Each structure stands twice: as structure tokens, then as C-alpha cells.
Amino acid sequence: MGTTSYVSISLATALERSLDLAAHNMANASTAGYKAQHPLLEAVDPKNSGDDTQAVSFVKDSGVYVDLSQGALVQTGNSLDVAVTGEGWLGYLTADGQTAYGRDGRLSVDAEGQLVNLAGNPVVDEGGAPITLPQDVGHLVQIAQDGTLTDQTGGILGRIGLFNVPNFDSAAPLGNGLFLPNPNANAPTPVENAQFAQGFIEQSNVQPVVEMIHLMDIQRAYERATHLMSDENELTKQAIQRLGRVV
Amino acid sequence: MKALGIAATGMLAQQTNVDVIANNIANANTTGFKTGRAAFQDLIYQSQLQEGAATSTQGTSRPVGLNVGLGVQGAGVVRLNTQGALTQTENQFDMAVNGRGFFVVTRPDGTQAYTRAGAFQLSSTGQLVTLDGFEIDPGINVPNNARSVVVSPQGVVQAFLDNDPDPTDLGQLTLATFLNEAGMRPIGNNLLEQTTASGAANVVTPGDPGVGIIQQGYLENANVNIVAQITDLIQAQRAYEMNSRSIETADQMLQTANQIKS
User: Fold this and answer.
1) How far apart are CA B113 and CA B102, in angstroms?
2) What is the pLDDT along chain A (247 residues), one digit of tens a residue?
3) Which of A138, B32, B101, B249 lies most in the core, judged by the most C-beta atoms within 10 Å?
4) Does residue A67 sit at the B interface (CB-CB below 8 Å)?
5) Which residue does chain B place closest to A28, by CA atoms?
6) Residue A110: per-residue pLDDT
């Protein structure tokens, strides 16, 4: 098999991964706070490896980037649903004590009164500590635009933290809408101008039309890659037949 | 190619979504019913290239990782605990909680359940019971000679007996509140059970700070917003179709791969 086939295979493999990502995005089209993820493909030029006789480039899928655009807000009327309407990430404590970040504001109160996400990870305040609501407050809590939590009489109970996560592209996704920041990046800092909307959730920012077009794109590119392989196979076959013919 | 499995999780999630929406629409006229919403979360990620991994000996590192997610999973059905509209029924045993709190019901096995549906009736022995005949707790016994029964917003139950112009006290209705009402388990018949997630029941008197009051002669409607449910249904159907397109594409790509050597 010549280089042609290997170039085609590199494209086909990258496309298969792209399809997985598109399918994952579409599967999460109704996951609140979900951020669409797209493949980063790059050309690998063998010249870099010192062999300049081959003027070809291979395709390499070098990573996944997260589309950080704002998702649409949907009113749910549930007082424990909070949408972040501007910059910033909510912080959650993971089971192993680390702080992960995400945009999923579908909160509830656990049996101890802690404000938690749907997976039971406590949401943290600006200081990074969990937030506990008194027994008689529960879902009657009021959440101000800056994240301040108050009870029915206006007593301040705490403030939901909102953080800037530097270099978010290098954060590792954990599932359940959580991302663990890269330990080598700068530590997250509180957002100065936090904007919350109580009773709303931020929908997934997956754009169905864009994903559909990706699907068509991926499929056609895959066909091109496989045709290239078939064509090369055909050429080799013809070469063998013609050269091997006794004149 | 994981796309087939990933898209299947998406279709399963939308099926759950449609089930929950159908249940909401079916219960649009159920007294005290609370709308449910299926909540989803992304599944775990398979990391093929680790972000932050060194790319040279000069200290450069990979800025992004190659993590492929495996689809979506259900994270729960969240009940929307907002107040339903109150409808006047003029039935003296119909009661609505306006605000926070649940009526406490004693089930036949002696355990307790909680409900917002205050459509009560009298049993053959004069006990105040739910439409399933379960006694409410604390029990209220209405004597045979009661002309009428009055329930105050604070839950004090009084009856006017025979020709007595002054009311006689029959008892005090109490409510239960929970720290995490969304964590209660629905068991059908308008009843909810306490769970470890909801925390223990906190027995309170109606009208206490943060607790609802009782309104006699009213019932609480379901808090289902039909228009919102129908739009959710449309979205769920389109999302289902979209996931089926992923499966179709993956299938056709595999077919293409199979035809390379033809």
C-alpha cells in the first residue's frame, strides 16, 4: 500500500472521531449547561521528520475544543434553578475533594441542607466552601442577580461563587457537566461582575443545524477518503496486470 | 466508531423525556400534582490525549486534550414545587395548602405518606380521610351531629354541633415540610414518601413562618403548564430525530468502509 492509502486512513480515522463528537453533541442537545465540543484537526507534514521527498500531509486529530458560547435561557419557575447569564463558571466539590467547574445551575438541597447539583456535588461559594441552607428555607430561597442567597425575611445566607477559569481549553471533562482545570494553569479567580438568573436554566449550546451539517460533511469526506483508497487499489491492480503482461 | 452507541444514549434520553412530558400532560387535571422535568447530564469522557501532557523537552505542553464523550445519561426527574392555582369547590372537606407544606397521611400499614391533594372525605366512622380512605395525621373525627365544619388558615378544625351556636374544637391539622422536597419519592395516588435525600419530615403548624396556610373549600390544581409541555414535546421529538440521524450517518459510513475493496 502506498502513501495515498495511509493519508486516506489518517483522514478516515479523524473523521470517525469527529462523528463521535457530533453524535455526543446531539445526544446532549437537551443537557442543561452543556457546551458543544468540536474536533481540532491538523496537518502533519512528514518534512518535519527530516524526510523531504514526500510532499504530503497526514491528518491528525490533535484535540477537542469546547465552544464556550452562551446557551439559551429557559424559564423553569423552579427557584433552585440558576442560570449564569454572563462570563464565569460555577464551582462544585467532587467526591475526592477537588473543585470542578461547570455551568449547570440545576441545583437542589440535599438532606443536610447543602446546595448541590443533580449528581450531588456541593456548589461552592466565593471562598470555595459548600453552601448550607437552614431547614425552614429550602426552595423558598431567593437568589439575587449577583448570586447572594437570602431567606424569606431578607437575611443573607451566603453567595454562590462564580469563577474565571484561566485557559479553560485545557480543562479535563469529567462528565455530569463538570470540568477539572489543568493543574498547571493559573488558579481560578472569582468573577467580579457575576450575573445569575433565578428560575432559569441555561440550555445546551449545541446548534442542531450546525451539527447536521457536520454530519453531512463528515459522511461525504469519509466517502472521499475511502474512494481514494479504492482508486489507489485499482491503480495498483492495473499496474500489476499491465506490467506483468508478457508482450 | 462510538457514534452508534452515543446516539443510542441520546435516543434513550429523549424517550425518557417524552415519558415524563406525557405523564405531566396526563396529570394536568390531577389535584396537587407537581410537574416533573427530566434532567440530563453528559456521560463520562474517554481521554485519548491528555491535556497538559508534555510535547517537548522545552516545557511546552498540549493546550487541549482529546476527550471524546460517550453520550448522555438521565440525572433525575426534578419536580417543580411551585404553587398550583387554587380552585374554589365550596366543599367543606376540600383543603388546599397555600404555601409550603404537605398534608400527612397514615397508610394502612401504619407508615406515613405526604400529599398536596387536600380532597378529603369522611369515612363511615367520621374520620377525615383521603379519596383512597387513608386517614390524615393527626386524625380528625367529625361527629355525626355536626352541622358544618370550619377549618381556620392555621389548621384549627372546629364543628358546629346540633343547634349549638358556639363551635366545638375537633383538632389541629399539621403540615410536614422537608429540606429537600424535590428528593421525595412519588408513589402514585397523589402521595409522596420521605427518603434519605428529602431528609426527615419537619412537623409544623400552618401559618408558621415559611409554612403555608390551609384554605378550606379550595383545591390546588396541578402546576402543569400545558403550552410549555407541548413545546417541550416538540423539542424532544426533534432531538430524537436528530440522534437517529447520527445513527444513520454512522451506519452509512460503516457501509462505505465495507465497500473500499470492491
Assistant:
1) 9
2) 567 888 899 999 999 999 999 999 999 999 999 999 999 888 887 665 565 566 678 888 888 889 999 999 998 888 899 999 988 999 999 999 899 999 999 998 888 888 999 888 999 998 889 999 887 777 788 999 999 999 888 889 999 999 999 888 888 899 999 999 988 888 899 998 889 999 999 999 999 899 999 999 999 999 999 999 889 889 988 999 888 777 6
3) B101
4) no
5) B72
6) 85
Peptide bond into B165 cis (omega under 30): no
Q: Is A219 within 8 Å of B253 when comparing Cβ atoms?
A: yes
Q: Which residues of B touch A119 (CB under 8 A)?
A: 41, 75
Q: Is A73 left (phi over 0), alpha (psi -120 to 50) or beta?
A: beta
User: What are the pLDDT digits (tens) for B134-190?
Assistant: 999 889 999 989 989 999 999 999 999 988 889 999 999 999 998 888 889 999 999
The answer to whether B3 and A19 have CB atoms below 8 angstroms apart is yes
Identity of the residue in A26, A169, A177 whose CB atom sits nearest the CB atom of B242: A26
Nearest CB to B249: which of A12, A63, A218? Answer: A218
**Which chain A residue's Cα is nearest to B66?**
A63
ipTM, two decimals, is: 0.77
Residues ≥6 apart with Cβ < 8 Å to A154:
none
Exposure string (b/e) for B214-223, b if CB count within 10 Å is 16 or more?
bbbbbbbbbb
pTM: 0.84
Q: Which residue of B has its CA nearest to A133?
A: B179
DSSP SS3 for A98:
coil
Give CA torsion, residues B65, B68, B74, B76, to 10 deg: 0
Residue B121: what are its φ and ψ, rounded to 5°? -140, 175
Chain A from 100 to 159: CB within 8 A of any B CB: 104, 106, 108-113, 118-119, 133, 135-140, 151-153
Question: Is pLDDT above 70 for B78?
Answer: yes
